[in-house]
């Protein structure tokens, strides 16, 4: 039997090898001069599924290897030229050369209609790209909801994002940091329509040109940019219905004429949402026996509106120099009201007291940004770039709490708070690159300045008038400067390629907590600098198999607000407080990865984090849980990942990724703590291309029992989503219908362990939502200029707001 199986395996292998060919494509202009940096995509005929994408080298050529026999279409595009399409019939063991005349005023092939379909997932040597428009389940969702469905990405109950089981991910938008702490970043992403975004890049081991922040890597969210000649645009409108209605709408306009390119993007959304929390806290005596219970059911209803504007222009000053300016602004308003009960019981669940809480909050988030950028080609092999960014944030929150004791007896107490936050950021960077035959060199420098001013004013009602609560009020100012230098090199010879870089960053900050009649004035500061090396070694085993080994050192700095020791009220028996002694955490990552035809990707990763960030939950004597963050000793993570990209049939594409992670955490929170856990994250996506412009999608996400903090364990959860789409209006319009979390299983529940207490929690939101959307594209279809990513870096991910 084994011999028969071996024979069949060898026969199939021989047959597969015999049915593969190579395709060499040469690109040149009307003067037959080779064109470098042209994008060539191999499309399967007749369904136009993208098989592979490459960029032409300095000789204007690319090679597609290991391609199965059959009919294909080659799509070629380059800035300033009309896209061209060429049909190809590959035969056994043949190398076919195709030359594109590629004139400036070209025409597509007569009688051929090419509808290129994007892959949902593209795997490259240094990153994984998710094309959002290729996923129907993203219809009408927010960006945070879209991230939850991406391979290896998880989002916890507080909106914290993890990548391959590791938290502290650096989130960029168009290559620039948001400078927002996790809570404020979650607010931004919860109000950002996924329809604004074209791609999301997942980078486990970012190169030296990126900020060293983010021990788990970088998630770069690329917004849509209309890159077409003449006047063009896209309109998107979506209506969703869950427990409450929601809507997402956007308009993208672009006009290019001569050397000028103008763009205008606007989006607006309204999201009515609810959050239901069930919590049961158990308190233990010195003998380890439960002696008190606190049950805290709560319900929060909120309405959030978002208006975002992004506009600017690009100007080609000469053939070698381009200039750009981008203006952006965001206004998010959110009103919420909620009710909470605090039911105290003894160990036998006999009621001791009952307190009802009514809360109301108004939050206003405003952001304005300016980017100025320049690119200059010094010669055919070198380029100089510069970016300057100015960012302003104004975040205000007005809160009111009223506690009423129902039993025994009655009493009322009321608290209100005004918590404005001001943030000003300025950053600048310069980058230089040069290509020397097989060697590419890059170097650059960056500086950033951050100023924050948070003035939290609390008042309590004494029965007749409002009085200032000086014990809770807090005025905090923070100044920070980070300077960075980097250098990197990339070398390729034969089957080997090597990339290495070194980044140096120096951080200096000082902070002041202004005193009042109840608190003393205090100041603190720190200066530190570090080197952050990164290296990647790759080897092409053959035309189908490649292997790479990479390693890097990274840093995570505490969010600004996490250093502020002021008290933030979550509910009557749960507070949050900053930690002025919070230190950075440092991580070493090493990863070994194998790719087979871009179809099967396997990898193993090890990371070691010292002084790692963790939630810490000490308890006050009156039963109040104080939530803060600090440094614990050690976090070690081992991970094994498997990714699969298949086309089982011409009408069916399948993508899946599973990540198995083992974590070990050690630290001291009142006592020595240690945690070991195995966890699994699995995502899968099925796309179906049907007849007459119809398409469908079925996706799923599952996360096993997991642990992100040493004191908190989360139970398994998942979701299933379905979508269908129909192209209309001569394929310029698309109607989509999607249902997210069909089985309503995307809850979050688990247990938190404190000193002499623990708490069970379950959190549910309005996640089962049906969405119908319509998009319409108008204008011509020619490529246009690039849009700068800007200079802003790591600081955007660290604005501390709640």
TrEMBL record:
Residues 130-217 form the TonB-dependent receptor plug domain. Keywords: Cell outer membrane, Membrane, Receptor, Signal. InterPro entries: Beta-barrel_TonB_sf (IPR036942), Ig-like_fold (IPR013783), OMP_b-brl_3 (IPR041700), Plug_dom (IPR012910), Plug_dom_sf (IPR037066). It comes from the Bacteria. Its main location: membrane. SUPFAM superfamilies: Cna protein B-type domain, Porins. Residues 1-18 form the signal peptide. It is found in: Cell outer membrane. It holds the Pfam family OMP_b-brl_3. PANTHER family: PLUG DOMAIN-CONTAINING PROTEIN (PTHR40980), TONB-DEPENDENT RECEPTOR-LIKE BETA-BARREL DOMAIN-CONTAINING PROTEIN (PTHR40980:SF4). This is Outer membrane receptor proteins, mostly Fe transport. It comes from Cnuella takakiae.
């Amino acid at each position: 039997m084994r011999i028969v199986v071996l024979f069949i395996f060898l026969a199939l292998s021989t047959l597969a090898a015999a049915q593969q060919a190579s395709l060499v494509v040469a690109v040149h202009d009307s003067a037959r001069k080779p064109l470098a940096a042209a994008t060539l995509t191999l499309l399967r005929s007749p369904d136009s599924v993208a098989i592979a994408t490459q960029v032409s080298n300095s000789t204007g050529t690319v090679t597609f290897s290991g391609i199965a026999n059959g009919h294909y279409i080659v799509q070629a595009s380059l800035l300033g030229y009309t896209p061209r399409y060429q049909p190809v019939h590959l035969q056994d063991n043949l190398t076919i050369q195709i030359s594109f005349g590629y004139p400036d005023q070209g025409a597509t092939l007569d009688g051929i209609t090419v509808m290129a379909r994007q892959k949902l997932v593209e795997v490259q040597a240094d990153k994984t790209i998710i094309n959002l428009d290729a996923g129907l389940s993203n219809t009408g969702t927010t960006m945070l909801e879209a991230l939850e469905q991406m391979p290896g990405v998880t989002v916890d109950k507080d909106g914290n994002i993890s990548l391959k089981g590791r938290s502290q991910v650096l989130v960029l938008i168009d290559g620039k940091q948001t400078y927002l702490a996790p809570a404020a970043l979650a607010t931004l992403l919860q109000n950002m329509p996924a329809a604004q975004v074209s791609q999301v890049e997942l980078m486990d081991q970012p190169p030296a040109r990126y900020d060293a922040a983010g021990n788990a890597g970088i998630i770069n969210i690329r917004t849509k940019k209309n890159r077409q000649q003449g006047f063009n645009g896209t309109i998107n409108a979506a209506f969703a219905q869950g427990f409450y209605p929601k809507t997402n709408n956007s308009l993208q306009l672009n006009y290019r004429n001569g050397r000028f390119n103008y763009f205008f993007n606007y989006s607006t959304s309204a999201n009515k949402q609810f959050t239901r929390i069930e919590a049961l806290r158990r308190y233990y005596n010195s003998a380890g026996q439960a002696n008190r219970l606190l049950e805290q059911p709560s319900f929060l209803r909120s309405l959030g509106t978002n208006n975002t504007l992004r506009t600017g222009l690009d100007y080609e000053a000469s053939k070698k120099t381009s200039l750009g300016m981008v203006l952006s602004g965001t206004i998010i308003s959110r009103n919420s009201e909620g009710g909470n009960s605090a039911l105290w019981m003894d160990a036998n669940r006999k009621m001791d007291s009952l307190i009802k809480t009514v809360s109301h909050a108004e939050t206003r988030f405003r952001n304005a940004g300016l980017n100025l950028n320049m690119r200059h080609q010094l010669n055919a092999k070198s380029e100089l770039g510069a970016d300057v960014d100015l960012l302003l944030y104004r975040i205000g929150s007005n809160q009111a709490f009223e506690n009423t004791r129902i039993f025994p007896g009655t009493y009322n107490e009321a608290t209100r708070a005004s918590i404005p936050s001001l943030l000003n950021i300025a950053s600048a960077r310069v980058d230089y690159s040069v290509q020397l035959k097989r060697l590419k060199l890059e170097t650059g420098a960056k500086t950033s300045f951050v100023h924050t001013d948070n003035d939290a004013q609390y008042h309590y009602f004494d029965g007749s008038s409002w009085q200032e609560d000086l014990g809770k009020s807090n005025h905090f100012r923070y100044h920070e400067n980070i300077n960075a230098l980097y250098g990197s090199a990339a070398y390729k010879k034969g089957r080997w390629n090597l990339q290495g870089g070194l980044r140096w960053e120096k951080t200096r900050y000082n902070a002041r907590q202004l005193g009042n009649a109840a608190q003393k004035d205090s100041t603190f500061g720190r200066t530190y600098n570090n080197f952050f090396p990164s290296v990647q070694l790759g080897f092409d085993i053959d035309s189908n198999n490649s292997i790479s080994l990479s390693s890097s050192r990274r840093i995570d700095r505490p969010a600004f607000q996490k250093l502020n020791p002021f008290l933030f009220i979550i509910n009557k028996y749960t507070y949050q407080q900053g930690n002025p002694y919070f230190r950075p955490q440092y991580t070493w990552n090493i990863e070994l990865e194998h790719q087979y035809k871009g179809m099967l990707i396997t990898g193993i990763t090890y990371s070691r984090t010292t002084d790692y960030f963790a939630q810490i939950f000490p308890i006050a004597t009156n039963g109040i849980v104080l939530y803060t963050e600090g440094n614990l000793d050690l976090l070690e993570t081992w991970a094994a990942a498997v990714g699969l990209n298949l086309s089982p049939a011409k009408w069916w594409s399948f993508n899946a990724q599973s990540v198995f992670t083992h974590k070990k955490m050690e630290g001291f929170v009142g006592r020595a703590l240690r945690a070991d856990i195995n966890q699994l994250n699995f995502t899968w996506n099925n796309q179906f291309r049907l007849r007459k412009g119809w398409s469908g999608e079925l996706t799923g996400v599952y996360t096993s029992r997991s642990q992100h903090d040493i004191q908190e364990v989360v139970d398994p959860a998942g979701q299933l989503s379905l979508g269908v789409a129909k192209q209309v209006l001569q394929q310029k319009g698309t109607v989509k219908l999607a249902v997210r979390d069909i089985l309503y299983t995307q809850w979050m529940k688990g247990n938190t362990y404190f000193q002499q207490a623990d708490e069970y929690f379950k959190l549910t939101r309005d996640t089962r939502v049906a969405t119908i959307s319509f998009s319409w594209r108008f204008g011509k279809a020619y490529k246009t200029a690039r849009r700068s990513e800007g200079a802003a870096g790591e600081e955007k991910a660290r604005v501390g707001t709640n």
